[in-house]
Amino acid sequence: MSYKVLVLLKPTEEQPALERVAEFARFLPELEVVVCRVVSDYSDDQIPALKERYDREISSLMKRFPSIEHYETYITFSKNVPEAFCNYAKLKSKTLSMAVISANKRNTLRDIFISPLDSQIMSKINLPVLVVKDANAPQHLSRAIVLAIDFEETAHDKMVDEVLFTAANAFAMHFNGEVHVLNCVPPIHRGLMSGKTTASVILGNEKPITRADVHGRDLATFAEKHGIPNTHCHIAEGRVDEMIPKVCAKLEARMVCMGMSSKDGVLSAIDQTASELVLEQIKGDIFIVNRNINIDDLKAQQEE
Fold this sequence. Notes:
The chain contains 10 helices and 10 strands. The chain has helices at about 15-25, 45-60, 80-90, 110, 115-125, 160-175, 210-225, 240-250, 270-280, 295-304, and strands at about 5-10, 30-40, 70-75, 100, 130, 145-150, 180-185, 235, 255-260, 285-290. Mean pLDDT is about 80; it is low at about 110-115, about 190-205 and about 265-270.
């Protein structure tokens, strides 16, 4: 399989996403890279001159990353950076393996009204996306790559689980890492659900089984299928946005792989927000598969 990734450049000297891709290229010399620059500050009459300027700047920039041997440049002009980037990703999705972007710094008050650029891309893009906070962070973290899954039947897609595992395993292979599976057992929202929410008798068992027991059984099945040792399996009861950062801190994880909800409705917004809150709190990268991805096309591309 050939790998081709789409990288969004920042309008600054620091380029965490490109630095991470250069690290990938040291292990995958055949890696193909599309270097994308979306220019938002322009007027129509400036476009030809600005295009030439950014072509020169990108050529100069790429000299800093000699490990990236195969790359092409895409420069576009738009007042809406996330929309322009996601539109290009959609246009080229059948030939791209994933997108890589840099994380934005958070401003709590401003972000109440305007979502950061990385958050908008994470929720809208139709490619798996890797969000890089600090390209140097993994040098100070352990080998753990955390695959975060909620095995509750109504909250996840098993096809997404397989795509996430494939990605986590690939990252582990190329970076001498270890895949850990974290199953978060979310709390019951008693205001939205009724009935008994403590231990109950399930599948004809005489002994009451807790929700954690059910999740633990599904986790064991998933781990056995993929050859993941028991020591790398973790169950945490609590909010996803609290428990994932907590477990990652304990493991000193270099990366989290997780999905956004594929469901529409009241709870889907909570699931999308959770990934953004995880990004804010962890030290490593976050790999996201969201609701817009065509899983069948992605799996076909992985099998080529």
